[in-house]
Structures are given as C-alpha cells and as structure tokens.
Amino acid sequence: MATLDANAALVIIDMQLGINHPKLGRRNNPDAEAHIQQLLSAWRRSQRPVVHVRHLSRSPASVFWPGQPGCEFQPALSPLAHEHVLEKNVPDAFAATGLERWLHARTIRQLVIVGVITNNSVEATARSGGSLGFDVTVAADATYTFDQVDLTGRLWPAEDVHALSLSNLAMDYARVVEVQAILNTI
To answer: Is this structure's pTM higher than 0.90?
Structure first.
C-alpha cells in the first residue's frame, strides 16, 4: 500500500452504543474496536482528519432510534471537539450529509473507512466514495457484521457475509487491507 496523504481522512462509521445490542445477533471480528482505536490513535498523532458518522434511524425499532442511548458514540471512539461529526439516516454516509462537499473543501482525496456494518453502511459508503472518485481503503479487520438470514431462510455466518462484502468492494470500489498495512503507511 502506498503512503497515505497527510490529509487522508479516517471515516469511522456508526460506532455507537446500539451496535452492541444483543438483538443484532452473533458478530464476527471481536477485535474490530481495538483495531479502530489503533487507527484513531495514529490519525490523531499525525493530525490527519477524522470523520465520525452517527446513524439516526427512521425506524422506531432500531438500536439507533434518535433520543435513545444506542445513538451515543462508544466512549473509546468518541469524537474530540475538533473532529468532524456527521449524521445520516440511511446506510450511505454520502447520501444527503454534505460529506462529499466537506471532503472536497479540504482537498481530501483519500479515505480509510472502518466501522459497522460491513455489508451495510461500510459497503454503501465505500461504494459511493469509490464511485465519486475518492481513493478508498477499507480496513478489513476494523469492520464487522452479523449473522444474516437470506431471502430463502438460509443462515449465513457473519464471517461469510463479511468476506463477501469485502470481496464486492475490492472488485471496483476500494482497496481492502488489514489495519497493520495502513499503519505502516503513516
């Protein structure tokens, strides 16, 4: 992986308290939060921009329904006062949030995306970023997902859902690498 620009942005998606709710089921990658913290620390040390994305759901049954504790950022990943926070209502962090404009105004062209859920908000945001011409990297071990039942009723383990989502992204939208490879470029 090539060296990251001095203004490459770390985009942390939906790392809120609600993502730990038991109703979401079994997840993969139990070390994801520790890996996100490693990247966040490196970004802060190098004074690169950090974008914290908060999901505010339109569904009252969601763990991210506004006004509930689930909407709060996880304490270890909470934004600092100078870090950018944006709120979204759909999986894609570029949709109706001003993210693209914010990045262009700062001449940011490289994005490193981490967070949840791999096959939902992470994938949607990485696809849009790649399609909009940004140089997108997804940290495979700093994202995770949950077991998922498909339309035929088949249960897919989170590990398989995660792997297929990352494979989809690697085809056309993003570079998919491990956190250590990213840290080696800072």
So the answer is: yes
